[in-house]
Amino acid sequence: MDNFKILIRLYRQYAKMDLLWFLRDTRYFFIQLVSDVVSGGCTIAGVCLLSANFKDFSGMTQNEILFMMGYALFIDGIYMVFFMGNNTGMISRIIGRGQLDHIMIQPVPLWVELLAQGFSPVSGSPIMIFGIGLTTYGAISADLPINALIILLFLFYSICSIVIVMSFIYLISFSAFYAPAAAEEIAGVGKELFSSLKTYPLGNMKGFQKHIFLSLIPVGLCAWFPATLLINAGKYGLEAVLVPKAFYMPIAAAIFSLIAIITFKKGMKYYETYGSPRYSGFGHR
Fold this sequence. Notes:
- This protein is mainly α.
- The protein is 67% helix and 0% strand.
- It has helices spanning 2-24, 26-53, 62-82, 91-96, 100-104, 110-117, 125-141, 148-173, 186-197, 208-212, 224-236, 248-274.
- Helix 2 (26-53) packs antiparallel against helix 3 and helix 3 (62-82) crosses helix 11 (224-236).
- The chain is globular, with a radius of gyration of 20 Å.
- The two termini are 36 Å apart.
């Protein structure tokens, strides 16, 4: 319980620093905002153009695809608010650059510091707000009810999706303990994998490829699959929530997070023994 109190206190402090950064450099904030909106808009436009030219694109209507795109942007928004920067969300960088020591010497548990460092509720919020707006518009356009059940399921599946994303990033960042120079940017590669692929529906994909995108490379679990579950819940109510496949999201999130924790701890033991070869008499990179 004390650790969670510390986490809340650190969240408050990082939120204050993020606000001060925004007030100090508003111009940079709006440049970043426009860049994020253009990038997200281009991603949405590409899929929407496909859905407009192909009837029932991957088994979804155009409005259902808009709903799915809103969910995908909301997941990106969670990442931007809680894990943005060269620390939590790009863990391979601080491992590869030998900067993990800077976190380990803090008088708080490692997991608390990692969770708090990327918290950016001001500079990271535009994408989340954009995602909420697009999701709401897509739900209304697709005639999906917006009630307590749908909202709670939306938040629950969103938590599962971001846990899967972060677990996957930490899982591949494990290699930075053993090859710091080569794997320094591997977390960014993992994040880009989700950014570029999760926005495509997988409904008409069959066989081995579809199972890969729902398991080993779980991009389908961060937009298409949860959006499909939410659409079914909106159409059929509670009976669509109590089917076996509806429990796949939390089970997958639990499995990925468990594997990521085990591998990260193994990497930490290696790091404690050998440290980082990136340190030298001239300091770290």
